[in-house]
Design goal:
Helix 1 packs across helix 6, helix 4 runs antiparallel to helix 6 and helix 7 crosses helix 8. The longest helix has about 35 residues. The chain has ten helices and no strands.
């Protein structure tokens, strides 16, 4: 079967799972709400970064996009779903590529919408504090944020395929972004800059002092995602449905 009808089938699966709509809506709602709150905070900090403040709501919101990625794949491991999918598409690599594409497309569109909404909501509160942001910096923040969220959704999807469990995947990723990066990462020196979440989040800053820049940081996140999705592809290829 060609890739196009397989992709259509996978997109249809996503459209029929209400929990996936809920995850994407949560991404938009949570990120926008937290960014709006951040926009009302004080700006007296000498390290104040208006761009990061404006899109900082995606940090808690990214949990929702990771849940989207895990649920989209873990649904295949319930009630023989993967067995039916592979019966229709015996070429497992083609099926998995279509599944990842079906995860990436709505994640990217929702990520871009979320970043734009968060930026607008925060700027309303920041007022003159955000006046120095150039159009190019704001576009970089929005586009980079959309790409970052898409990579995190794919990372979650690949990890779920590898572990064959959405709960196990979230059990690794949620502590990584909420605990490891903020608690352990601060004491780990420059090595922490290469964690998948911290590397990708450089693009959310107006200025940066670390080892990585905005696009090289996203490249590091993309390498993590490629490695994990390759492991997921191996699991789909080698293990029984």
């Amino acid at each position: 079967m060609p890739l196009t009808p397989v992709l259509h089938a996978e997109l249809l699966k996503i459209r029929t799972l209400r929990s996936l709509y809920g995850a994407l809506f949560a991404l938009l709602a949570v990120s926008t709400a937290f960014s709006a709150l951040a926009g009302t905070s004080g700006t007296s900090d000498p390290d104040f970064d208006p761009l990061f403040t404006a899109v900082s709501g995606v940090l808690p919101g990214q949990i929702a996009v990771m849940a989207f990625g895990t649920t989209a794949v873990s649904s295949e491991f319930h009630s023989g779903g993967l067995r039916l999918s592979l019966a229709a598409v015996p070429r497992r690599g083609r099926w998995f590529a279509a599944k990842l594409t079906a995860v990436a497309l709505p994640a990217l569109l929702t990520g871009l919408l979320t970043a734009g909404a968060a930026l607008l909501a925060a700027r309303a509160g920041l007022g003159d504090a955000a006046a120095g942001l150039t159009l190019g910096e704001q576009l970089r923040g929005v586009v980079g944020c959309g790409i970052y969220l898409t990579l995190m959704a794919l990372l979650a999807a690949g990890l779920t395929a590898w572990l064959r469990s959405g709960i196990a995947a979230l059990g690794i990723l949620v502590p990584l972004v909420l605990i490891v990066s903020f608690v352990i990462g601060d004491s780990a020196g420059t090595a922490a800059d290469f964690l998948p979440d911290r590397a990708g989040q450089v693009v959310l800053h107006e200025t940066w002092d670390g080892t990585l820049g905005p696009w090289t940081g996203l490249a590091v996140t993309a390498l993590w995602t490629a490695a994990v999705t390759a492991a997921g592809a191996w699991s789909v290829w080698r293990r029984d449905a």
